[in-house]
Amino acid sequence: NGGRAAKLKRLSRTRCRRHPLYVDFKDVGWNKWIVAPSGYDAFFCLGECRFPLADHMNSSSHAMVQTLVNSVNGAVPRACCVPTALSPIAMLYLDPQDRVVLKNYQDMVVEGCGCR
Amino acid sequence: GRQGGATEPDGSVSSLLSSSPTPLDPSLAQTIQNLLLSRLGLQSHPNPRPGAPVPQYIVDLYRFHSQQYHLVQDPHFSYPSQHVQEANTVRSFHHTESTSPSLPLEKRQTTASNNRVPISFNVSSIPQDERVVSAELRFFRGGGASPGPGAHRVSLFLSGSPGDSESEPTLLESRVLTRAPNTKPAVSWEAFSLSTELFLGAHAQTGSLSFLLEVTPLGRRVGHLRVRRSLGQDEHSWARERPLLVTYSHDGRGEALAAHGQDSWDEGGRVKR
């Protein structure tokens, strides 16, 4: 029983889910023109989409079919772990003419991951 | 960036990432960066001059929008919820100052009539595919620039382009500013809403917008809004007081700025503290 529980725990950890990723604009040299923020929590999706797909994985019907086919034919890949919900962030930056712009950029932060 | 998952004690993410490819080829990374900049509406990597002034109003707007209310510096800051309702972009413009080397600063300040000051803005940097949904012209009213006790009539005119001296200025708005005699000098901004049609015209023609601001004292005291740089005033201080044209626009992509944190301000746009 202990071995089975450990295996289940390991499998659940490798399942598709959201992971932390902080993007520091200084690291990519964008801090010269981005006034604020200095960086932000972007997150990323990673993990396996294996059978059975849990409800919280926001799986599409196609992902379920693909996973089912994968279970009988390993040549067909599993569904992909991708962002299913994204949110915007506002950025304050200097444009090429040194004018200050505040803009709301869509799809910059991963809010949720799922199998698609 | 930094992947927080790498610090997780179970190492599960690290094990999943262990099969990740090696860092990208620099040229490929550059290509991806250019694609991203293009998605962000920029043609190239901006390279601003060091110390380029950032208007406090825009910083406060950003901080308010990001719900960093304690960092908003202007105690009278009011979130322009009406303007940003349909806008996902706010652009700020300082007026174009005369750079004629033959005219010293003090001379340039006296060439205009004492109570009529021309100010123009180069708005050509607004992308053609961006729709201006609202705009305002803001003047600093405070400290030494504050009107003295008594009323002043302030009139804003739209004038022709800088080279067009023949057309008559069109009155956009006229208002009376008053202040009680015994109150402390109020530091605030006076904002004039502008019609979005002005920007259609500006784009079609020279890419600039020219105004005339007329301030007429209705009593004996003379006072004015801050439209000229004082002799000896440093750039940093002037940047905080000079007129500011603010445009609110939408590029057709994504949510408006007003969509966030609307429950955090009251009907007047002030922070609920």
How would you sum up the major sheet of chain A?
3 strands, antiparallel
Shape of chain B: globular
Order of helices and strands of chain B: EHHHHEHEEEEEHEHE
What string gives the helices and strands of chain A in order? Answer: HEEEEEHEE
Number of strands of chain A: 7
Largest interface: A-B, 39 and 47 residues
**How much is the average pLDDT of chain A?**
89
Per DSSP, the total helix count of chain A is: 2
Quaternary form = heterodimer
pLDDT < 50 stretches of chain A = none
Number of helices of chain B: 7
Description:
The complex is a heterodimer of chains A (116) and B (273). Chain A has 116 residues and is an alpha+beta fold. Chain A has two helices and seven strands. In chain A, strands 3-6-7 form a three-stranded antiparallel β-sheet, with no helix packed on it. Chain A is elongated and about 60 Å long. Chain A starts with a helix and ends with a strand. The mean pLDDT of chain A is 89. With 273 residues, chain B is an alpha+beta fold. Chain B has seven helices and nine strands. Chain B has a four-stranded antiparallel β-sheet, with no helix packed on it. In chain B, strands 3-8-5-6 form a four-stranded antiparallel β-sheet. The longest helix of chain B has 14 residues, at 26-39. Chain B is globular. The two termini of chain B are 34 Å apart. The chains are: A alpha+beta (116), B alpha+beta (273). The A-B interface holds A 10, 13-14, 19-24, 27-28, 32-33, 35-37, 39, 42, 44, 46-47, 88, 90, 92-107 and B 1-5, 10, 12-13, 15-17, 33, 40-49, 52, 54-55, 58-59, 61-63, 65-66, 88-94, 125, 253-257, 259-260.
In short:
The complex is a heterodimer of chains A (116) and B (273). Chain A is of the alpha+beta class and 116 residues long. Chain A contains two helices and seven strands; from the N terminus they run H-E-E-E-E-E-H-E-E.
